[in-house]
Amino acid sequence: ANINDIVDGLAFAGDMRFFVKDDNRIKAETKIRMPEKNKETKAEYPYVSSYGNVIELGEGDLSKNKPYNLTKMESCKIYSDSEKQQYLLKDNIILRKGYALKVTTYNPG
């Protein structure tokens, strides 16, 4: 085989040979043609969130009081609950097959 072959527009960098030896004698040989580079693949993330990254409460509009009906909350908005002294948010998360979601929160103060 010619290592400079081009098949379907893909140049081959070389060949790989695998040998099966028994009693120091070659019993079988397999030849594999290796492409010059892998096909480019698009990066796929395990999840997608409506929030970009870490939510900084100090930069949000915290004056919004939570609605009585929590289903009326908008995504990407942070609401305050003065009775329970907590913040609420709504997110739309899409998980790819085979992944799980773990949400961790902490109080740095």
TrEMBL record:
<dbReference type="GO" id="GO:0006508">
    <property type="term" value="P:proteolysis"/>
</dbReference>
<dbReference type="GO" id="GO:0008233">
    <property type="term" value="F:peptidase activity"/>
</dbReference>
<protein>
    <submittedName>
        <fullName>Serine protease</fullName>
    </submittedName>
</protein>
<keyword id="KW-0378">Hydrolase</keyword>
<keyword id="KW-0645">Protease</keyword>
